[in-house]
């Protein structure tokens, strides 16, 4: 498989893109002040305790307090209390070591855990996790063997996750990592004892760390970087990893590297609501606070045979593109897909199989739960950070993020009501600034409504047309007709 990673780190905004078989499969962008915090460890201070939801809000130094549920406290995990409350473990002002599980999104603060995870190449160490797991990529026999093996090396309160790399490597390399990770945790405890909360104990997420994970996941290909120092650091990260076959190139062209490799075009398309498929059908993608909704439409595609075959072909094509868009845009959480109605379970199974295949090599854990009675496909994808659109786009100040604004008709009728309430008896004329579409709706054909209202109000209405992409109006000034006519455009 042809793979490459294009890296743009010369400027303050850090970007990289993964290309597989000639198509961009992922774009990741990190802006200053918006770095991912997943994996970071903090000494936090309990800001508030909520017994009603068995959770606490923790100040870790950010704009929003983090959310910590009782089920993510080591003391609760190791307790035999069958009916505990959060108040039994935490109180306001108390300090607590926490790790970020999910970045803040929208109006929600970061999701926190008190069960710290320290990652190595072969294992993940949980100092107080009391949990043992083995990579699901191993068969059941190997997984049982590894569970029994690692448990013997753990203290009662400790936990461990055995990675696929440990299974492939064999041997006792994981034991050496366990010793190193135990020492790292001891250092974190010592550091926490010396600091005042809130404070950062460990920062994990960096762009180069993310790229390294991609290098390990994809195994081989070409890395093209526009910065010599970053190139040298990435080469150093691969030292001693002969199983990874990557070639490196330094890009020194004047054109931005994303533009040179046509990634900017893909990025622009990844921010659009509508995604066109190659047969003329299209997807409509809406991301909300609670979930992501994808609607499949036949569009211009009508097929050449019967309707059922047209529907199936469109849904199969859509399933493949949906898998790509989920990875490209990095959507997470609950995802609902409204495929075009299919009449039999066999066709639904075909569509599901295509989507599952497209997500086979996804870096994020995904779970497809199946179709509902209404024919909606339900799935989840692990969410650890903002999606690409959420990170790059801001809420429209006009529509407030709804995607809808008031129509010219609505504003024209509101203007009429305001004029009825205005002190028109004291003035000869009024100057109104508005867009052309609002004026047209207000005045009507051949200015029939304008003339009627002027007669009823006994006042001349003078309009000044302004250019604005959104329908708009404002009552600017009352005065004489002659004085205001010079400031506006008299329609008569």
TrEMBL record:
SMART domains: S1. It comes from Heyndrickxia coagulans. GO terms for biological process: rRNA processing. PROSITE patterns: S1. Pfam families: RNase_E_G. This is Ribonuclease E. Residues 39-121 form the S1 motif domain. The keyword Metal-binding applies. The lineage of its organism: Bacteria, Bacillati, Bacillota, Bacilli, Bacillales. One of its GO terms (cellular component) is cytoplasm.
């Amino acid at each position: 498989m042809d793979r490459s990673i294009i890296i743009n780190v010369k400027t303050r905004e850090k970007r990289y893109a993964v290309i597989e078989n000639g198509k961009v499969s992922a774009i990741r962008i990190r802006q200053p002040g918006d770095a991912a915090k997943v994996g970071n460890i903090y000494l936090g201070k309990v800001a508030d305790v909520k017994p009603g939801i068995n959770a606490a809000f923790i100040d870790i130094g950010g704009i929003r307090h983090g959310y910590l549920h009782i089920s993510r406290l080591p003391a609760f995990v190791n307790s035999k209390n069958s009916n505990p409350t959060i108040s039994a473990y935490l109180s306001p002002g108390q300090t607590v070591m926490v790790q970020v599980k999910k970045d803040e999104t929208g109006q929600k603060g970061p999701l926190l855990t008190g069960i710290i995870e320290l990652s190595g190449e072969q294992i993940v160490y949980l100092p107080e996790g009391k949990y043992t797991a083995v990579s699901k990529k191993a068969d059941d026999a190997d997984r049982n063997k590894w569970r029994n093996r690692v448990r013997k090396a753990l203290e009662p309160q400790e936990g461990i996750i055995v990675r696929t790399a440990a299974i492939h490597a064999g041997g006792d390399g994981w034991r050496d990592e366990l010793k190193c990770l135990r020492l790292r945790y001891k250092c974190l405890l010592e550091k926490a004892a010396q600091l005042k909360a809130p404070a950062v104990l460990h920062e994990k997420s960096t762009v180069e760390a993310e790229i390294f994970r991609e290098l390990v996941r994809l195994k081989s290909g070409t890395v093209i970087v526009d910065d010599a120092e970053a190139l040298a650091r990435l080469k150093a990260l691969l030292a001693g990893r002969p199983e990874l076959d990557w070639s490196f190139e330094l890009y020194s062209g004047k054109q931005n590297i994303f533009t040179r490799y046509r990634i900017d075009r893909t990025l622009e398309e990844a921010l659009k609501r509508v995604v066109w498929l190659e047969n003329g059908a299209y997807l409509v993608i809406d991301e909300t606070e609670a979930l992501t909704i994808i609607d499949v439409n036949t569009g211009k595609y009508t097929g050449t045979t019967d309707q059922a075959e047209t529907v199936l072909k469109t849904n199969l094509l859509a399933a493949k593109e949906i898998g790509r868009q989920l990875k490209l845009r990095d959507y997470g959480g609950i995802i609902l897909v409204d495929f075009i109605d299919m009449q039999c379970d066999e066709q639904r199974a075909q569509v599901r199989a295509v989507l599952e295949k497209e997500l086979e090599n996804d870096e994020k854990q995904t779970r497809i739960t199946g179709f509902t009675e209404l024919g909606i496909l339900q799935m989840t994808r692990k969410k650890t950070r903002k999606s690409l659109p959420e990170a790059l786009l801001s809420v429209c100040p006009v529509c407030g993020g709804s995607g809808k604004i008031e129509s010219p008709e609505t504003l024209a009728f509101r203007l009429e009501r305001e004029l009825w309430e205005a002190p028109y008896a004291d003035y000869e004329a009024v100057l109104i600034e508005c867009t052309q579409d609002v004026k047209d709706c207000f005045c009507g054909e051949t200015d029939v409504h304008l003339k009627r209202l002027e007669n009823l109000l006994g006042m001349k209405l003078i309009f000044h047309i302004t250019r604005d992409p959104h329908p708009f109006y404002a009552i600017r000034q009352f005065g004489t007709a002659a004085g205001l006519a010079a400031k506006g455009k008299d329609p008569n």
